[in-house]
Every structure is written in structure tokens, then in C-alpha cells.
Design goal:
Blueprint lengths: L2 H24 L9 E4 L3 E2 L6 H20 L4 E2 L2 H11 L7 H14 L4 E16 L4 E15 L4 E15 L8 H21 L7 H4 L5
Parallel strand pairs: 1-3, 1-4, 2-4
Antiparallel strand pairs: 4-5, 5-6
Helix pairs in contact: 2-5
Length: 213
């Protein structure tokens, strides 16, 4: 190996190790069954005109959040407890970035949470893709997510945006685009959570059923 190549290889190792160390610092490991998680209602600010579809998109997003945390054994705060706290605190998560994070921390502390999670659906769309042999309907949803370590006041995700998608209709009847958008919301949330939840294996079903309070 040439001297220059050896130097570059060494620098790459240092850079990778440094990045890994930084990630560990900002994403500490948690003990799931000792970690209380507050999953706030998913806010649909996409401008979707159909009220029913707007509700279905948000509901499916919340369902995906619950599934991903519960199947790894995290303790989930009860939805009615969360709603009561939001009402009592007159919490408003629609403000600018700094205020939104402060509100998320305030709600998390009121509920004695270790982690607080908030998701917005910021845009949805659909399109028809076709060629000589097939037609497919594709739904897309832009998801923005915050995950806050409440005790440290430190974000694990800070308004990170990802576009989820879902395609169907290769065979048989072409599915409605509205269904594809609902599925795209769940896919976007799943992909955003993957790097955060990757260290935590899926636990036994009996354990998952005890994940909530």
C-alpha cells in the first residue's frame, strides 16, 4: 500500500470511530421495560381535504408508533392520560422549532416520561404509474418526527423529515390512492424509527402485552 493510501485508510478509521462515538453519546441505550414513553397524537397538517382520510392517516401513524415501541417492551403511557395532560397544560405543539421542543419537554415531564415522541404528517400525495404491461398506484407521505430524552432535555430526533411511500396494483384491481397514502404514513414512521429502535430486539408477545401501563 502506498504511504498516501495508508494515511487515508487510517483517517477513515478515525472518522468512522468518531462518528460512532458521537452517535452513542446522543442515542444512549435504554432498558425498555424501565423506560416510560409518551406517544403524543399524530398531527396531520398535510392539507388533506378529506376529513375521513385525514383522520385515517393520523390514526394509522399512531398505530405504527404504538406497534414499534410496544413490540420492543417499552412502557407506553395510556392515551387518556396523555390527552388529559395535554388539556391540563394547554399544550401547543404547533409553534416554531424551539417552542415545540420546549412544549414536548414540558408534557414529558408532567407525565414523568423518559421519552416523548411527536409526529407530524406534513404532506401527502398520490400518483398513477403505468407502462405497457401494468399500472400501479403510489401514495406518498412526508413525515416529521421529534423524539426527546426528557430527563436530559436532549433530542434523539429533532424534526427529522422522511418521505414514506407505498405502491400497489401490480395485479388485479388497481387500489385506491387513499389506501396507499395511509400505508405510506406507516412506512415513513417505521423508517424514521429504525435507527433509534435498532438496538432493541422484538420481545415475546406475552411481554409486549404488558408494555403499556
Amino acid at each position: 500500500m502506498r504511504p498516501g493510501s495508508a494515511w487515508m485508510a487510517a483517517a477513515l478509521v478515525v472518522a468512522v470511530c468518531g462518528a460512532a462515538a458521537g452517535q452513542e453519546e446522543h442515542n444512549p441505550r435504554y432498558v425498555p421495560d424501565e423506560t416510560r414513553v409518551v406517544l403524543l397524537p399524530v398531527a396531520n397538517v398535510s392539507g388533506e381535504k378529506d376529513a375521513k382520510q385525514r383522520s385515517l392517516q393520523a390514526e394509522n401513524g399512531k398505530r405504527e408508533l404504538v406497534k414499534r415501541f410496544a413490540e420492543r417492551g417499552f412502557r407506553l403511557a395510556e392515551p387518556r392520560t396523555i390527552r388529559r395532560a395535554l388539556d391540563d397544560l394547554h399544550a401547543d405543539l404547533s409553534g416554531e422549532e424551539r417552542l415545540r421542543r420546549e412544549e414536548l419537554e414540558r408534557v414529558g415531564r408532567a407525565l414523568e416520561a423518559d421519552l416523548a415522541v411527536y409526529v407530524e404528517i406534513t404532506d401527502v400525495s398520490q400518483q398513477l404509474n403505468q407502462n405497457l404491461f401494468s399500472k400501479t398506484r403510489e401514495g406518498k407521505a412526508k413525515i416529521r418526527m421529534w423524539i426527546l430524552d426528557v430527563a436530559r432535555g436532549a433530542p434523539l430526533l429533532n424534526g427529522v423529515v422522511l418521505e414514506g411511500s407505498s405502491t400497489g396494483g401490480h395485479f388485479g384491481e388497481l387500489e385506491k390512492g387513499s389506501r396507499r397514502i395511509v400505508l405510506a404514513v406507516a412506512n415513513g414512521i417505521r423508517h424514521l424509527l429504525e435507527p433509534i429502535l435498532k438496538p432493541y430486539p422484538v420481545v415475546e408477545r406475552a411481554h409486549r402485552e404488558r408494555a403499556g401501563d
